[in-house]
């Protein structure tokens, strides 16, 4: 018995040491500096083979633009199809099928958009205004039940809500083909962000004739789709396929700007394996990698592309709990977590501490200034102040000891983050006891929905390029509130930003910034923690890779592979 | 024999019915919705989705409809993969999993039995210790460690084989080895124990007394009888290998069923959970039946027909 245990120990330590050696062996090799950095400005020599190998972390759930609800579908649709507008590498809205930017009526609620003529689908059919009307009507049709259709159109496109409620017909939707190349879009009220909104794949055109010919087979694989974007999909077995191929679309109106000939996609769900495949030269671009253990192998290397995405993570505080109803207790919690240590030591993936709600690098005012540059910072870590507020809060509520249920997720990253936050809070706030419940994503959402938590670690990504996508979550009784928070003043600011201030963008911006201040500084309704970073490995020879803040993650069409 | 098999098939159907029913109701106990971004939708928008997928019906009605469709061979449409029938999903994914599982099983059984037999024949020599060592490593070290080590050293460092993906025979080598470690150790351990026991039994002594050669004794008399327990454990093990291993499939980027099954549970993709579960259950009961029939072939003492024994 003893002998076998000893041998087991020996074996284990042997294997473990091999494994550790494997882990640490990585970093030396990767740091080899790559050429091609010094010749910025001069024309770089293109490689003979313009072919890219990309790893994705999931299968494409759908290529029916109306049914899309995830980033990978959006990213792929953005590569092979095109709507009225698209985002360029600097997040600027540029015309796609549209021939120039829209013209507006006086109150900016009606847009007239001219389409480029002579554009063709990949089967040779012309692309006309009717294709947009057809796709939009499908998106709102309750029979189609498009997951994002009503969500994106209700309250924004005229009659969308009425169609969902059954009081209006599909034809009443606020989109009309004035002629084959003129679209008229009627909004419920002016939307300051309508142009970037229209880049979303839900608003892409679909050819009715082709759609009806295909019937149930539409979008079932690469052969049952039409393309009008910079690339065509030449291989894809449908939503369960783990491999797909995009090739340059020579008939695309702007094909002269596309250098890349072919992109091979494969699915790799294991981050370390993806990094291995990259190291071995089998992939040029990896999926997003978040694990500090993997990233440390590539820290400082040319291969590592790191940027902040507009994904913000926070601690929700449920005011159904009488202790959390007290603003000083909420503030004490928000001020107690050392966010800098959280991002630098715990996450260690380039994420940044968030003393704000609306993320950096995402929304810009009329002078093209970042929302964050003109707004304040709130709830920065201050443990001393937190202690004082905590004592005061306990006195006000008459409590001596408080225990909270903390709902977190069951992923690796979540678990270490949650343990760190628990430790920070319990150490700094005497008499506080926290019980962490680590649950799968779907259950976290269900618990949030049912307000079955005291503290909850959650996050939010944007649906459109405007601060409102983060701000209107917190209005009294709002669909995303789920923490019994309410402040009439906040509600008023949001309402005015949505209605009367739409015509005056600068005032509207101010109202949104004031609302953020109320939410965080005055009320400490949530405790913002960090803004997440994206880390991907990308071959330094690949130039012109563009990433976006919402909708599609990336654009591949401006990529050039250099020698 | 025929009567026995018919009877067993009858039990199998009952078992499957119970498994299906239990899975159906247990699955519905998982909180959360099967749809992405459900939390962002309004009540009315949610109702539209739930109606479309028949999730607004009372549970017994949903259950009845599912069972009726299932008997017709319709396992429904996946929620996470738009417009994809579950049967298609399984058909697309079972191939790589089954191939990998089968390869690992064959490698595992052959190597394991070989190791076990020589360990028993050369008891308490370095061969025996070496074989035990391999068995202990294979049993106690999880397969993802082997997978990670193989991938890093053989593919990244040495560049002998592709790191990942599933595009040809050379892509299957590393995952097969990683997955075979466990069956190797199981087969080797069982085989060694049984062989030692069998080699000490009276009929082996008799065979020896008759003057049978060592080879004849070990292969003809001992091996056959010692195989029984190995076959018992290897049958169900084969099913679990062939229905896919989550970690191996993830690490080597294999488009298999194992990863899909786990994901479907996390996503509350009810039709996929049901479909894969039914498939696993069917494979399981079928393999158990085959194992029972194999017993009789390997060992005449437990021949089931009750007919003429040799």
Tell me what the structure shows:
The complex is a heterodimer of chains A (563) and B (310). With 563 residues, chain A is an alpha+beta fold. Chain A is built from 19 helices and 20 strands. Chain A has helices at 2-30, 71-80, 129-140, 149-153, 160-165, 194-197, 208-214, 271-279, 292-295, 322-325, 327-336, 339-347, 371-374, 383-397, 412-428, 441-449, 468-471, 488-498, 505-522; strands at residues 51-56, 85-87, 93-95, 103-104, 110-114, 175-179, 182-186, 231-236, 243-248, 262-267, 304-317, 352-353, 402-409, 432-439, 455-460, 526-537, 542-543, 546-547, 554-555, 560-561. In chain A, the strands form 6 sheets. A 6-stranded mixed sheet of chain A has the order 12-16-11-15-13-14. Chain A has a 4-stranded mixed sheet with strand order 1-10-9-8, covered by helices on one side. Chain A has a 4-stranded antiparallel sheet with strand order 4-5-7-6, with helices on one face. In chain A, helix 11 runs antiparallel to helix 14 (383-397) and helix 18 runs antiparallel to helix 19. The termini of chain A are far apart. Residues 1-42 of chain A have low confidence and may be disordered. With 310 residues, chain B is an all-alpha fold. Chain B has a domain at 89-256: MetI-like fold (Orthogonal Bundle). In chain B, helix 4 packs antiparallel against helix 9 (214-242), helix 5 (126-140) packs across helix 7 (169-199) and helix 6 crosses helix 7 (169-199). Chain B starts with a helix and ends in a 12-residue tail after the last helix. Residues 306-310 of chain B have low confidence and may be disordered. The interface between A and B is large, with 62 and 58 residues.
| Biggest sheet details of chain B | none
What sequence of helices (H) and strands (E) makes up the elements of chain B? HHHHHHHHHHHH
Biggest sheet strand order of chain A reads: 12-16-11-15-13-14
Q: Which quaternary structure do these chains form?
A: heterodimer
Largest sheet: number of strands, sense, barrel closure of chain A: 6 strands, mixed
- Mean pLDDT of chain A equals 87
CATH class assignment of the domain at 89-256 in chain B: Mainly Alpha
Radius of gyration of chain B: 24 Å
Helix/strand/pairing category of chain A: alpha+beta
As a percent range, the share of strand residues of chain B is: under 5%
Q: What is the overall silhouette of chain B?
A: flat
Query: Compute the gyration radius of chain A: what is it?
Result: 26 Å
What average pLDDT do the residues of chain B reach?
Answer: 82
- The second-level CATH architecture of the domain at 89-256 in chain B is Orthogonal Bundle
Of all chain pairs, the largest interface belongs to: A-B, 62 and 58 residues
Shape of chain A: globular
- Helix content bin of chain A: 25-40%
State the helix count of chain A: 19
What is the helix content of chain B?
A: over 70%
CATH-defined fold name of the domain at 89-256 in chain B: MetI-like fold
């Amino acid at each position: 018995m003893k002998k076998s245990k000893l041998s087991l120990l020996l074996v284990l330590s042997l294997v473990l040491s091999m494994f550790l050696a494997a882990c640490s062996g990585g970093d030396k090799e990767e740091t080899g500096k790559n050429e091609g950095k010094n010749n910025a400005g001069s024309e770089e020599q293109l490689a003979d083979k313009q072919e890219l190998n990309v790893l994705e972390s999931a299968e494409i759930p759908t290529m029916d633009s109306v049914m899309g609800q995830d980033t990978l579908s959006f990213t792929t649709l953005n590569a092979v199809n095109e709507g009225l507008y698209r985002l360029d590498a600097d997040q600027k809205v540029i015309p796609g099928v549209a021939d120039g930017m829209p013209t507006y009526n006086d109150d900016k609620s009606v847009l007239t958009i001219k389409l480029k003529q002579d554009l063709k689908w990949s089967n040779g059919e012309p692309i006309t205004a009717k294709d947009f009307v057809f796709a939009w009507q499908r998106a709102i049709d309750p029979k189609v039940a498009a997951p994002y259709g009503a969500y994106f159109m209700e309250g924004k496109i005229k009659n969308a809500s009425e169609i969902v409620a059954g009081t209006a017909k599909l034809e009443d939707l606020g989109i009309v083909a004035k002629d084959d190349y003129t679209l008229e879009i009627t909004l419920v009220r002016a939307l300051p962000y309508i142009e970037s909104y229209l880049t979303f794949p839900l608003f892409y055109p679909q050819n009715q004739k082709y759609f009806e010919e295909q019937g149930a087979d539409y979008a079932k694989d690469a052969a049952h789709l039409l393309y009008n974007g910079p690339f065509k999909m030449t291989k894809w077995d449908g939503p369960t396929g783990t491999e797909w191929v995009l090739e340059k679309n020579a008939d695309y109106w702007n094909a002269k700007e596309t250098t890349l000939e072919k992109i091979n996609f494969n699915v790799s769900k294991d981050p370390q394996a993806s990094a291995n495949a990259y190291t071995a030269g089998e992939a040029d671009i990896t999926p997003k990698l978040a694990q500090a253990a993997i990233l440390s192998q590539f820290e400082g290397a040319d291969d590592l592309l790191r940027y902040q995405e507009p994904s913000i993570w926070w601690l929700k505080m449920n005011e159904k709990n009488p202790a959390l109803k007290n603003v000083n207790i909420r503030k004490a919690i928000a001020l107690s977590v050392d966010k800098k240590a959280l991002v630098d030591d715990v996450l260690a993936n380039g994420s940044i501490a968030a003393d704000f709600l609306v993320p950096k690098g995402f929304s810009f005012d009329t002078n093209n200034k970042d929302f964050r540059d003109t707004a304040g910072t709130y709830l920065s870590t201050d443990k001393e102040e937190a202690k004082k507020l905590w004592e005061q809060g306990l006195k006000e509520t008459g409590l001596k000891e408080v225990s909270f249920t903390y709902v977190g997720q069951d992923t690796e990253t979540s678990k270490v983050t949650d343990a760190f936050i628990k430790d920070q809070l319990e150490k700094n706030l005497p008499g506080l006891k926290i019980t962490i419940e680590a649950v799968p994503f779907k259950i976290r959402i269900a618990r949030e929905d049912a307000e079955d938590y005291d503290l909850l670690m959650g996050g939010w990504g944007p649906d459109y390029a405007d601060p409102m996508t983060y701000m209107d979550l917190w209005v009294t009784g709002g669909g995303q509130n789920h923490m019994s928070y309410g402040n009439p003043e906040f509600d008023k600011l949001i309402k005015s930003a949505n209605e009367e201030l739409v015509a005056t963008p600068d005032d509207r911006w101010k109202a949104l910034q004031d609302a953020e201040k109320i939410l965080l500084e005055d009320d400490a309704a949530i405790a913002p923690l960090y803004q997440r970073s994206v880390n991907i490995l990308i071959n330094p020879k690949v130039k012109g890779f563009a990433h976006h803040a919402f909708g599609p993650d990336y654009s591949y069409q401006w990529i050039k592979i250099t020698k | 024999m025929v009567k026995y098999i018919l009877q067993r098939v009858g039990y199998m159907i009952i078992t499957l019915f119970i498994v299906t029913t239990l899975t159906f109701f247990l699955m519905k106990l998982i909180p959360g919705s099967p749809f992405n971004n459900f939390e962002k939708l309004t009540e009315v928008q949610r109702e539209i989705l739930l109606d479309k997928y028949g999730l607004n019906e009372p549970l017994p009605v949903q259950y009845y409809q599912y069972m009726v469709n299932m008997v017709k061979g319709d396992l429904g449409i996946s929620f996470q993969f738009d417009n994809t029938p579950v049967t298609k999903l399984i058909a697309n994914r079972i191939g790589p999993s089954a191939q990998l599982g089968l390869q690992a099983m064959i490698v595992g059984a052959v190597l394991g039995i070989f190791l076990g037999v020589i360990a028993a024949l050369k008891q308490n020599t370095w061969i025996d210790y070496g074989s035990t060592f391999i068995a202990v490593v294979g049993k106690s070290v999880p397969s993802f460690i082997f997978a990670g080590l193989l991938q890093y050293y053989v593919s990244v460092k040495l560049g002998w084989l592709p790191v990942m993906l599933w595009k040809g025979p050379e892509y299957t080598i590393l995952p097969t080895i990683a997955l075979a470690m466990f069956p190797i150790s199981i087969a080797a351990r069982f085989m060694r124990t049984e062989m030692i026991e069998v080699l000490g039994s009276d009929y082996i002594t008799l065979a020896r007394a008759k003057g049978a050669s060592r080879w004849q004794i070990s292969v003809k008399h001992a091996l056959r009888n010692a195989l029984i327990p190995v076959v018992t454990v290897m049958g169900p093990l084969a099913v679990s290998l062939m229905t896919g291993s989550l970690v191996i499939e993830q690490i080597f980027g294999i488009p298999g069923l194992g990863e899909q099954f786990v994901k479907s549970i996390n996503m509350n993709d009810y039709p996929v959970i049901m479909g894969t579960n039914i498939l696993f259950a069917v494979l399981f009961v079928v393999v158990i039946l085959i194992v029972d029939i194999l017993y009789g072939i390997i060992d005449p003492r437990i021949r089931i027909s009750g007919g003429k024994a040799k």
